[in-house]
Design brief:
UDP-N-acetylmuramoyl-L-alanine:D-glutamate ligase
């Protein structure tokens, strides 16, 4: 089953207590698409600039990601982010953001993407997310992500988008920012009232909390021995989770006007798969560690989570 993803394709410069990297592959869509590519074909929608390395494009294509929805702006540079993680890895400073025209980006889907049934709107400007969604006329399962910047600066547009999606990925701090609730269960229920039936709260080293129509789940993060760079862990978590669901769901016989039903056991397993992928992501800069693993490695680590939590 094909999955469509729209989000930022970026060039990052990152500093952590483990070291630093200049101008490596980054962006919400980059991490998500590579993680989801372990499970299902991914159609990518995004924008790159005239400084985008061709080797990054080949990396995705060699992983089975469909690049035909990505446009290259020859008159501007790629989205750029520079950040620094502090000693505890929990606090992050954004030192520089250069959108280089991404805020003016207006996505246009190729006609052969229009039949995409599973859509992921990676963290980006809500208007861009909405414009893509409006072109996905056959979408049956829609998940999105967001970040504090869009909650603060484009709140009304974000609230409008939430009414149109099935699930939302959001971290615990952002959930409190969006809802005004300090209790995470209350925050998740408040977000459900805004539209999404599934709410996945990302809690970094403390794992995640998931609230769905028939599911309440708290799962710890995998206890990785090596922490190098947390960038993109949440996006790769989402990629593993939705990628696994794409593998399990049969949407061919479902009515796109009726809510999709997801078996509780499948969703729990999907959360474990996402957790396993994210645990690899943090072990190196950019997607370097994900490039070194296989689906077998992910399944093995997800199985180890079973032993850890007794599921």
């Amino acid at each position: 089953m094909n999955m469509l993803c729209v989000g930022t394709l970026a060039i990052d410069s990152v500093e952590t207590p483990a070291g630093k990297r200049e101008r490596v592959l980054g962006g919400s869509a980059s991490y998500f698409a590579y993680a989801a590519g372990f499970y299902t074909p991914v159609r990518l929608v995004g924008r790159t600039g005239n400084d985008w390395p061709e080797e990054y494009t080949r990396t995705f294509q060699n992983h089975g990601v469909d690049w035909r929805g990505v446009t290259n702006d020859s008159l501007a540079k790629s989205y750029f982010w520079r950040g620094r993680y502090l000693k505890d890895y929990q606090d992050r400073e954004t030192l520089e953001i250069q959108m280089h025209g991404f805020d003016r980006y207006r996505p246009s889907l190729p006609v052969y993407y229009a039949d995409s049934q599973v859509v992921f709107l990676a963290a980006s400007i809500p208007t861009v997310q909405r414009q893509v969604l409006e072109q996905c006329k056959q979408a049956k399962l829609i998940f999105a992500d967001t970040v504090d910047m869009w909650i603060e600066t484009t709140r009304s547009e974000l609230l409008e988008l939430l009414q149109k999606i099935d699930g939302l990925f959001i971290n615990d701090v952002e959930a409190k920012q969006l809802t005004g609730k300090s209790n995470l269960v209350q925050a998740a229920r408040s977000i459900q009232k805004m539209g999404p039936r599934w709410v996945i709260l990302k809690k970094g080293e403390h794992g995640c909390f998931v609230l769905g129509p028939d599911l309440m789940l708290a799962l710890p993060a995998y206890p990785s021995e090596s922490l190098v760079d947390p960038t993109g862990a949440g996006d790769s978590f989402a990629g593993g989770l939705l990628g696994y669901l794409c593998e399990r769901l049969d949407l061919a016989k479902t009515d796109r006007h009726s809510p999709i039903q997801i078996d509780r056991r499948d969703f729990v397993q999907a959360v474990k798969q996402g957790t396993a992928v994210a645990s690899y992501t943090i072990e190196a800069f950019s997607i370097e560690r994900m490039q070194q693993i296989t689906r077998k490695d992910i399944d093995q680590r997800a199985g180890q989570l079973d032993a850890l939590v007794g599921l």
